[in-house]
Amino acid sequence: MLKAVQILNWSSGLTIITQRLTKTRNSSSLKLSTFSSPPRRILPLNPTRMSSSQPGSDPLPKSPAFVSVQSSGAVRKIKFCQLCGGTTKHEIPDGEEKLRAICTHCGRIAYQNPKMVVGCLIEHEGKVLLCKRNIQPSHGLWTLPAGYLEVGESAAEGAMRETWEEAGATVEVISPFAQLDIPLIGQTYVIFLARLKNLDFAPGPESIECRLFGLEEIPFDSLAFSSIYVTLNLYLEDLKKGKVKFHYGTINKRPGSSPSDIRAFTLDYHLQP
Amino acid sequence: MLKAVQILNWSSGLTIITQRLTKTRNSSSLKLSTFSSPPRRILPLNPTRMSSSQPGSDPLPKSPAFVSVQSSGAVRKIKFCQLCGGTTKHEIPDGEEKLRAICTHCGRIAYQNPKMVVGCLIEHEGKVLLCKRNIQPSHGLWTLPAGYLEVGESAAEGAMRETWEEAGATVEVISPFAQLDIPLIGQTYVIFLARLKNLDFAPGPESIECRLFGLEEIPFDSLAFSSIYVTLNLYLEDLKKGKVKFHYGTINKRPGSSPSDIRAFTLDYHLQP
């Protein structure tokens, strides 16, 4: 069975393509009840090898065909080797399953891996700190202070650094709150609960404004990204339940939806410790 | 105050350098009591700006000097632009604080970001599944099935894929168990608790052997990486306490220690939800 998945040109520069996706396991997909998107399940598909270990039983899928949704366009954009300057060829290397850019001169493979976006959900006297973006994408919309993790820092350190850069706020990280993967754009959000060390904060160059919002005031109609929408909803739901927990989940954008529709997604694999 | 930090040539190809590190916040460093490494604290250092918001109080650090431990050698290895083939210059771009490789032809900056290593801690009837590595580094030593996350898959999907590739095992992810950052080598381990869907497993090309170990049998003296050592210790400690929880932490290799000494580290920022 094949499933058409549209790769959206969201904020990562991926080109729009349609790719066949095969999967072979049940997803423990959970949908946040307050979200507007319909449930989506990743179904067990196309076993490529059958198990013979259970005589008499139905054949079980043995080899999951793990084919991730990936834009070959992004790989094909890599035309030169960073190290030697040689031109690349685009092939699936021996023993691998994915198209890679391989240097025709030195043989180096240019792997591409997801990036971590680290940020803080800052609580202060029943309010949360949000920043209005002064940069694209989502200029003028509200977000948590967050940005790409750098080599040489931990996720907690990166989250505090981004909070300083975007909100001029000095914070203390309290606990991990969420890991939200967005496979479509090769990003993983890692959000920590944090508290202000003092009340000094002010927008950095990437922010127009920084403000503490009461929980009833959070501008859900003017948030910058699905990941922020999910994070704040999970936080409010936890508060209602009386206990803030850690959340793992995958944000799958609904095929065909607009990049600006931050509610057009499902939260799959929503797992908690 | 300055702190010398040695960058080790561990498993990432980073060159050995000594770099000055300034930090300005208190670390909530917790050390696992069963570990052999001494406690290490990241101390508040060199505030670069003083706050005047609290008249009469001691000056407070206002601007944390977030300088991550990064090898400039890795950046300097990038000599050509992947997209246009232009030569790079190595400079700190306007508005940034880190050395980057910038294309002299098209102006593109080649950012380098940490990679996520995703894997499974597979529980089966009081035993855990380990793989003996058939590749370098750490050939012949034991590890959890784990590997680099690919663009287009979630961390949970990547962990299941790696488990299939390295152990031939079909698993179901149950819950997130740990996120362990290793800033020194630009890696973050994301480990899930998982269970076998059936008892079929067999070593893939990257493994010599795969085996279920009773908790008393875990080969702690023959583990491949500090991250695996930490993960299994946290798991055993949780079991002793009667509740398996999610752990966030930073593994900081002890300066000057050998790459092969997987116990020469501290677990800093050990946080739990």
Automatic annotation (TrEMBL), chains A, B:
Keywords from the UniProt entry: Hydrolase, Magnesium
GO MF term list: hydrolase activity
Annotated InterPro entries: Nudix_hydrolase (IPR020476), NUDIX_hydrolase-like_dom_sf (IPR015797), NUDIX_hydrolase_CS (IPR020084), NUDIX_hydrolase_dom (IPR000086), Nudix_N (IPR029401)
Cofactor: Mg(2+)
Gene3D superfamilies from the UniProt entry: 2.20.70.10, Nucleoside Triphosphate Pyrophosphohydrolase
Record field: transmembrane: none
Cited Pfam families: NUDIX (PF00293), Zn_ribbon_Nudix (PF14803)
Extent of Low complexity compositional bias: 28-37
Residue intervals of the Nudix hydrolase domain: 113-236
Region (Disordered): 28-65
Stated family: Belongs to the Nudix hydrolase family.
Name of the protein in question: Nudix hydrolase domain-containing protein
The organism of origin for this protein: Eruca vesicaria subsp. sativa (Garden rocket)
